[in-house]
Amino acid sequence: MIDNFDAPDGPSIVSITDRVKLTPLGSGVGSVHFLGDRAFFVGAEETIAIVTADGEITRTETHFGAILCAASDGKRIVTGGDDGKLIAIDAKGETSTIATDAKRRWIDNVALHGDGTVAWSAGKTAFVRNPKGEEKTFEVPSTVGGLAFAPKGLRLAIAHYGGVTLWFPNMAANPEFLEWAGSHLAVMFSPDNKFLVTAMHEPAMHGWRLADNRHMRMSGYPGRVRSMSWSAGGKGLATSGADSVIVWPFTSKDGPMGKEPAMLAPMPARVAVVACHPKNDIMAVGYSDGTVLMVRLEDGAEILVRRTGGAPVSGLAWNAKGTLLAFGSEDGDAGILEM
């Protein structure tokens, strides 16, 4: 593990750009995921590029058209497309079709549960399929904005206009509704299952403490929050949407209520993507000007991974061991750093 972080007020940022294995992909990157020690760069359309740590590239065709969403549980990646298909990709790069929407509607959200259950959405309808192939559906009042499984139990959060619906697919009980005005476009549970957080269409986030559904307002962003990542152990939630990484504290039973967030790694460009290290209090940050930094959460110390220049960073991911970091950009530039 790299540990020679410079002090945030030091004369210069430590650079390890020469240690990055550059792998230009030739087409834009939508997101990045690791299966084992291979990085899977999900393209904006049709193709996934699979890259080894030494830069060898293979490609897998998936959808006939745009890839609209992707999620990974470390064992497989599941993607949804505007062809109405939900496709799984395994660690060998082999694909299989999980579902095809009967009306050929866009599959624009997907989430994976640790037991192999998969959820996806088309329009106002959320679908859940368990490992046995049993499928259930639930319709919310407006188009689904985001999906997330709780870390404990089989409970699915469905974000939509006006709030979030919490649905237990295996129970007959009525779903629980968490109300908050506005359009909710992404949703996440905290790793300890105590909080639920959404990113909104407006430049703000909202949250609920699940024990009593108390509201948590997280506002003040200059732009929309498009990327969120929990730090190791769930102590903080790192977010994009500003020219610094905004990190909300979740160490107390009240979460961020009444507390100011940390503002780390300020740059002249907007933060585009954040990805916290799986084991240590470090995060990777990609900016709209192409810069990639590693930042220590404790004091904001920085290491330069990719220099300024080029298209916005659109994907960042660590492997499960935290020994590899992959990044990709909107113009197809990509790289892998071995720690």
UniProtKB/TrEMBL annotation:
This is Anaphase-promoting complex subunit 4-like WD40 domain-containing protein. Gene3D superfamilies: YVTN repeat-like/Quinoprotein amine dehydrogenase. The keyword Flavoprotein does not apply. SUPFAM superfamilies: Quinoprotein alcohol dehydrogenase-like. InterPro entries: Apc4-like_WD40_dom (IPR024977), Quinoprotein_ADH-like_sf (IPR011047), WD40/YVTN_repeat-like_dom_sf (IPR015943), WD40_rpt (IPR001680), WD_repeat_multifunction (IPR051179). Residues 278-338 form the Anaphase-promoting complex subunit 4-like WD40 domain. It comes from the Bacteria.
